[in-house]
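subagent[fold] <- orchestrator: predict structure for attached chain, return tokens only, no commentary.
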Amino acid sequence: MIEWEDDNYEEERTWSWSNEQDERIREVMAGIDDENYSAAFEGWEGYLKTALKLPFEAEVSEYQERGPLKCGDKVVVSAFESVDDLYGIIVRIAVGRKELYFPLCDLKAIDEKSANYTPLFDYDVWFANR
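subagent[fold] -> orchestrator:
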């Protein structure tokens, strides 16, 4: 049995942001069946089209097994392109002069103070835990 020296352990390991984030995710998913990923992606796409201000600078936040990009690469997100059953929302990005299509779930907004940061982070968390 583990004994904790600090009686406030439960309070300390609970992050206040997760409750706010959970609520934001619940708002996006309101009225959508959790098992209907098609409807969920459409709901997220509709929400993000209004919440995100395009274009914006982002960074590849996930390891890329294939393709021309790697984790940490800087890109500019310019448009929503499609929804894919496996990769979720696909966006058009610019890397230098090259345009590519890329999963939004593998990106994070560079500017943590921008209006784009929280909606994109919420989508990433939902996507990873769906």
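orchestrator: received. Logging for downstream: The radius of gyration is 17 Å. Helices lie at 9-12, 16-29, 37-51, 117-129.
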